Amino acid sequence: MSENATTAAPLRLGLIGLGSMGRHHARVIRATEGVDLVAVADPGGDRFGVAGDLEVLPDVHALIDAGLDAAMVAVPTVFHEEVALALAEAGVPTMVEKPIAHSVEAGERVRDAFASRGLVGAVGYVERCNPALRALRERLDAGELGQVYQVLTRRQGPFPARISDVGVVKDLATHDVDLTAWVAGSPYVSISAQVAHRSGRENEDMVVASGRLASGVIVSHVVNWLTPFKERVTIVTGEKGAFVADTLTGDLTFYANGTVTSDWDQVANFRGVTEGDVIRYAIPKREPLALEQERFRDAVRGVGSEHVTMAEGVNTLRVVEAVLTSAAEGRTVQL
């Protein structure tokens, strides 16, 4: 953070949505230097008791009336557009939890509302702040893997009680779409997917998707809410080996293609490439949500630009909707 960001008066930040994500945002905002949580709102009340000595306001308009420098939106996805447009109209820089909105068209309206007013608009893709993925991106940018061939993600676990309005694709797979395009530095050009409904709910709870990026990298995503253990893994394979990022633990491991050849023909034929050194990197581990809030603060201050933009949020949502279209229509969708 620059000296300007530390010496300026703290940003007056408002939070709307005090549910499962909002309560964590409230905690992190209060701990973020240069930011004061001055107002909170949730028409459903404060079931987690995070408001402290702040009045729980009924809606976004009451939040705006508190006089804000910036806002954090953590309401259910179906309300993102309505709340974000009100904040844009009031001239309030805003970060919206992922996904940016319930549809691409709604996301475009939100993006355009902030862009037309010259306001900072961010989307809360917190995985970009995960220490393992940040270290992975830096090492890929430095060419440590050589040419990248494939990105594979697995995001599995038990059903989360917090979700009521979207399926696993818009809630969880959206993370994998965003981080894959970001880590590989290339947009999607095609996607094919299958979904399943196994828990008796209206929305899908399992998805398997595969696709291709503009760079030629092939990608694969396995995401569900029905696995009795939690897994958050990103594997990037390239000409020099493979990186494995575990975003649950923040660990990054490199498996090198070895230079040692085997004269045991059966093993050599089976392995294809030889197994080389395995390196697990020691990397500093900060809470991703804390870094995300700092990046948003710096963007609002005009001293940083590492936030996920609303334009990026719309691009990710476009791929996510293509996943659902592919599954519904049984075809590969070109982007």
TrEMBL record:
InterPro entries in the record: Gfo/Idh/MocA-like_OxRdtase_N, Gfo/Idh/MocA_Oxidoreductases, GFO_IDH_MocA-like_dom, NAD(P)-bd_dom_sf
Residues in domain GFO/IDH/MocA-like oxidoreductase?
Answer: 134-243
The Gfo/Idh/MocA-like oxidoreductase N-terminal domain is annotated at 12-125
- Domain of life of the organism encoding this protein: Bacteria
Q: Name one GO molecular function term.
A: nucleotide binding
According to UniProt, the name of this protein is: Gfo/Idh/MocA-like oxidoreductase N-terminal domain-containing protein
Q: Which organism is it from?
A: Actinomyces glycerinitolerans
